[in-house]
Specification:
Layout: H1 9-20, H2 26-33, H3 37-50, E1 69-77, H4 82-90, E2 95-100, E3 107-113, H5 116-128, E4 132-139
Antiparallel strand pairs: 1-3, 1-4, 2-3
Helix pairs in contact: 1-2, 2-3
Length: 151
Amino acid sequence: MVQQVVLDKTDEKILNELLANAKTPLREMARRVGTSFVTVMNRIKKMERQGVIQKYTCRVDYERLGYDVHILVEMRIAKGRLIELERKIARSPNVLAVYDTTGDYDAVILARFKSTRAMDSFIKEIQTYDFVERTNTKLILNTIKEDALRL
């Protein structure tokens, strides 16, 4: 089980600033949070050591790059092979996320493709994997909200 970390309001404000724009200069962030540059720097380093902050990244508009086909694939997987299969699928460059789930399906895949042909090829490939019993693919028509959780 993951060890929970307790944050105070200053830590939460700093995290929210990083979520809004991780490239914000620390002096500007300190001004917005209402604390000193050194405090912001030390708090960020502490949250990195604790594993709260895991990495810094950018947000990409995939549609502008031609990845217009956005899908969600539900998968039913034979017993005992779930993690092994999820890891194999997660290696695909088109896969954005792989989740264990409850309900009628064991896993959910979130992926993007440049064409329906590429999507079709991906789905047909995973359907050939041993222990995949069934898939259910949903085309995502519009993304209303896709954001990080603010504290």
